[in-house]
Backbone:
């Protein structure tokens, strides 16, 4: 098998394509969340807390404000992603068909026949 054909088979496997789509969608979603954090949430936090941007905070050569800003951004992004995942899970539960609680479904006919054969052999 040629190297090109082998690579083509690898690249076209379902998992690889699904992963590529997930990375692309994740990057786009990351930009949306980053914009929401930087343009919507952080100004509100700045109005409440008095410092709209933590990046300017420093103590001598230590620019701890940039680190603090990154931590706050991460916490807000994590909260947003948690809210989206929770909403998707709630919607998924709402639209799933409920499983009927009761007797299990009957076994397939082949299993019934095999049990009959086993019972017949035991009686011999």
Residues:
């Amino acid at each position: 098998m040629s190297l090109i054909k082998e690579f083509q088979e690898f690249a076209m496997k379902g998992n690889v394509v699904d992963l590529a789509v997930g990375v692309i969608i994740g990057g786009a979603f990351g930009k949306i969340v980053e914009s929401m954090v930087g343009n919507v949430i952080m100004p509100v936090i700045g109005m409440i807390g008095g410092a709209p941007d933590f990046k300017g905070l420093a103590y001598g050569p230590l620019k701890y404000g940039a680190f603090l800003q990154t931590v706050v951004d991460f916490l807000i992004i994590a909260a947003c992603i948690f809210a989206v995942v929770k909403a998707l899970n709630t919607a998924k539960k709402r639209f799933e068909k409920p499983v009927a609680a009761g007797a299990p479904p009957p076994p397939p006919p082949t299993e019934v026949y095999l049990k009959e054969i086993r019972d017949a052999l035991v009686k011999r």
